[in-house]
Amino acid sequence: MNPKIKKIDKEYEKNAEKITELQARQRELEKQRMELENLDIIGLVRGMGLSPDQLAALIQAAPPQPVPAPERKEDGYETV
Predict the structure, then answer these.
(1) Of 16, 55, 72, 74, which residue has the fewest beta carbons closer than 10 angstroms?
(2) What is the pTM of this model?
């Protein structure tokens, strides 16, 4: 087999492994982020001193708000 092909195959496998590891880390970071956001929301709700029934009534009475789309740069990637 051509030595260049072996070299490319080796690099390809190395990159595939890195990608798998980074995707797993990305999922873990997303999970941590969601947990912290949920804790913030719970803290805000508890700070209002409402009962669960009062909170449900407040949410149902509020008009739905549109969720803004994330800003995009000209290159098509989201700005953070």
Answers:
(1) 74
(2) 0.61
